[in-house]
Amino acid sequence: MCPRALTALLLAAASAVAPAAARAAEGNAQVAALQVALRAHGFYGGTVDGLPGPQTALAVRVLQRGRGLPVDGVAGPRTRAALGSFGRGTLGRRILGGGAVGWDVAALQFELARHGFPCAEFDGHLGRRTVAALRRFQRWAGLGVDGRAGPATLAALRRPPAGSPLVLGWPLRGPVTDGFGPRRARFHAGIDFPAEFGRPVASAGAGRVVYARWHPGGYGLMATVEHGLGVKTRYAHLSRLDVRRGQLVRAGTQVGIVGSTGFSTGPHLHFELRVRGAAVDPLPALR
């Protein structure tokens, strides 16, 4: 099925799909590209999650009404043309390099994020951060690292995202309020546990501490534990570190206590699982 027909089908079927929370991993890159294009023109303010739904369909109808097009809520060729450069391009029709703009770039950004290599924002621009994410994915996939999305890179992105080869323990017990996946126009690469200041945070498994200090990228005080088989776990926004770099830890060893350091709006643990550098949803690995 061609991407345009798939987009139309997904939007038309919006009322028949399950709740978004249960389908976070099933977001479609074509729908995500549509959401990015609508967002760029001010018609869509929801999350770029690749999930068809009433908010996306409504945004399409508002665009269509404003452009004098048939109002059917389906992103067909005329509707995409009305989106200008953000409506152009189908992923795979051209090799994407730095500076490219379009529907296909937004789809590429979404696929990179789903595979554990998010850029700063889903914006349809292949800027330096998207190029950096693309290069990281190419290195991870064993491809030539050139920062350009050609046939080999797109073939690798059609494979399923990575999963954890290890079973891990919970770093702390409690509800998860912000899961792994799209969040507004960005991608949340871990899960968040809201908790009171000072609550102990445990290592999810045995391993060696490879990072234990302030992280300049917004994570605040952070510890990273290497567990083997390419698996690392991150514990961020801590108010205190209780381990040091090079230390061997067991599952359950206290690595620090909950805080709100770095880019944080309240006390919580941000927990990430990385497999050879790719961000992976931690929940399926936790027991």
The number of helices is: 7
CATH superfamily of the largest domain: PGBD-like superfamily/PGBD
Q: Would you report the number of β strands?
A: 11
CATH class category of the largest domain: Mainly Alpha
Structural class determined from secondary elements: alpha+beta
> How is the biggest beta sheet arranged?
9 strands, antiparallel
Distance between the termini: 39 Å
Q: What is the strand content? A: 15-25%
Low-confidence stretches at least 5 residues in length (pLDDT < 50)? Answer: 1-24
Q: Domain count, please report it.
A: 2
The level of helicity is: 25-40%
| Helix and strand run | HHHHHHHEEEEEEEEEEE
Describe the model.
- This protein is an alpha+beta fold and 287 residues long.
- The protein folds into two domains: 3-157, Orthogonal Bundle (Muramoyl-pentapeptide Carboxypeptidase, domain 1); 181-285, Distorted Sandwich (Glucose Permease (Domain IIA)), CATH 2.70.70.10.
- It is built from seven helices and eleven strands.
- The strands form two sheets. Strands 3, 4, 5, 6, 7, 8, 9, 10 and 11 form a nine-stranded antiparallel β-sheet that branches. The protein has a two-stranded antiparallel ribbon with strand order 1-2.
- A hairpin with a 2-residue loop joins strand 1 and strand 2 (186-188).
